[in-house]
């Protein structure tokens, strides 16, 4: 069982590293294009009629890949876990956390479903490059699937803690 947790933690680290570098590359591209747009306003050497559609693509991808990275590491903001301390037992706390994960899974599954439908049904093309808008929408089902997998993983760990409340998943995973 310990090897499974170590393997999952190693995969988590690699996935987060990939998502972080995707976000860094997207942010660098956004910064470059915005800077280029400013320079071209003062030194008009080229047309930037394509500016809006590329920026839309980059911002959308940055937001969704960033959200997936935050989801994997439980880094999303919240109001805090103020309910758990009022629950009578350790198992009740894990059941509560399982319910929260289930609600998150339902939300992300709905998001994934509609994002995938949008991706599959769109026939539009962008104006400047005439590329399919599927490229704009692809980041949503990709990141939605990552979030679904991690919600399922988190639910599995909460179920394991309900069965064995003394199980320290984080400690097992971090022992390399």
Strands, helices and their partners?
Elements: H1 2-42, H2 51-72, H3 90-121, H4 134-137, H5 139-163, H6 169-174
Domain Tripartite ATP-independent periplasmic transporters DctQ component: 31-156
GO biological process, one term: C4-dicarboxylate transport
Membrane topology: Multi-pass membrane protein
Question: Mean pLDDT score, rounded?
Answer: 88
Shape: elongated
> Considering DSSP H and I runs of 4 or more, what fraction of the residues is helical?
over 70%
- If helices are DSSP runs of H or I spanning 4 or more residues, what is the number of helices? 6
Topology as a string of helices (H) and strands (E): HHHHHH
Largest sheet: none
As residue ranges, the low-confidence spans are none
What is the domain tally? 1
**What portion of the residues fall into strands of 2 or more residues?**
under 5%
Subunit structure: The complex comprises the extracytoplasmic solute receptor protein and the two transmembrane proteins.
Membrane topology: Multi-pass membrane protein
Family: Belongs to the TRAP transporter small permease family.
InterPro entries: DctQ (IPR055348), TRAP_DctQ (IPR007387)
